[in-house]
Write a structure and sequence with these properties.
five-stranded parallel β-sheet; alpha/beta; 217 residues; 7 strands; two-stranded antiparallel sheet; Rossmann fold; globular; 6 helices
Length: 217
């Protein structure tokens, strides 16, 4: 196996980054792949800090330097031990996730293109562009179902932290993407169409790598 192809998927909270990554993972299973979430690289809630007042939507809340280092290690063919983050207690677990290099590595998160060192790790950069009202709707559904939060709390955090940080730190990184997925009406069909379109892009990249002697299967 040659060097892995590392694919970054960025976008705002609720834009469907995980949906895109999971779809691509299923369609490219034949090559061998892994999905990595930027969220596992949260430092964790500082001791004595109220979680409701802590800004998890600022890049400084994440160890993006370690994420870049781990991805470079994988690209070099090395196995890495990645952290595992627990959103219920806002802490990293004591256990780690051992990840070995695979031909395709998908990395999704708000800030995967936010720093030059991290951005340059990716061979392909996709940005999922979804209107704010749709991102908020998806965020409400996720946080109520998966994290047991109330809708008023979700909306307040959105207005105070999530959307301002998106406009400041995430949206500008769209300019550094190779492909922007414009999704004004992000229903299931739209996501399926985008995943298939990205799959074709990946196949072209895989074929190009193979023709250049970079065998990945």
């Amino acid at each position: 196996m040659g060097n892995p192809i590392i694919v970054g998927i960025a976008g705002g909270s609720g834009s469907g980054k995980t949906t895109i990554a999971s779809g691509l993972c299923r369609l490219t299973e034949q090559y061998g792949n892994v999905v990595i979430s930027q969220d596992d690289y949260y430092f964790g809630l500082p001791e004595g800090t109220d979680a409701s007042r802590y800004n998890f939507d600022d890049p400084s809340a994440l160890d993006l330097e370690r994420l870049a280092h781990d991805l470079l290690e994988l690209k070099a063919g090395k196995t890495v031990n990645m952290p595992i983050y627990d959103f219920t207690c806002h802490r990293r677990l004591n256990s780690v996730r051992t990840v070995t290099p695979t031909p395709l590595i998908f990395v999704e998160g708000l800030f995967v293109f936010a720093t030059p060192a991290l951005r340059e790790v990716f061979d392909l950069r996709f940005f999922v562009d979804v209107p704010e009202n749709e991102r908020l709707r998806r965020r409400i559904l996720r946080d109520m179902q998966e994290r047991g939060r109330s809708e008023p709390d979700i909306r307040e955090q959105w207005m105070q932290q999530v959307e301002p940080m998106y406009l400041k730190h995430t949206h500008p990184t769209m300019a550094g993407a190779h492909f922007v997925l414009e999704m004004p009406y992000p229903d299931d069909l739209a996501y399926c169409e985008q995943v298939v379109a990205l799959w074709k892009i990946l196949e072209q990249r895989i074929e190009s790598s193979t023709h250049n002697g970079e065998k990945i299967t």
